[in-house]
């Protein structure tokens, strides 16, 4: 086995061990599209187009994953979404 193959195998193993979580945003009958879009842009750093698409998916499908990453990174963002009156959870 060459050194290059060993390094590649080590990198693949490291990537597999990183657990990814998601912030899922749920539909509600309270918040306006503008509020949801603006909140996603400020909290999750979405582009206007991405935030609009997520708000439409939430409206029509009931939920949408709005951010993916490690739990500790998502924790504060999810809290900010909740403080803004949105329904969200980390899964």
TrEMBL record:
<keyword id="KW-0645">Protease</keyword>
<protein>
    <submittedName>
        <fullName>Clp protease ClpS</fullName>
    </submittedName>
</protein>
<keyword id="KW-0378">Hydrolase</keyword>
<feature type="domain" description="Adaptor protein ClpS core">
    <location>
        <begin position="20"/>
        <end position="84"/>
    </location>
</feature>
<dbReference type="GO" id="GO:0008233">
    <property type="term" value="F:peptidase activity"/>
</dbReference>
<dbReference type="GO" id="GO:0030163">
    <property type="term" value="P:protein catabolic process"/>
</dbReference>
<dbReference type="InterPro" id="IPR003769">
    <property type="entry name" value="ClpS_core"/>
</dbReference>
<dbReference type="Pfam" id="PF02617">
    <property type="entry name" value="ClpS"/>
</dbReference>
<dbReference type="GO" id="GO:0006508">
    <property type="term" value="P:proteolysis"/>
</dbReference>
<dbReference type="InterPro" id="IPR014719">
    <property type="entry name" value="Ribosomal_bL12_C/ClpS-like"/>
</dbReference>
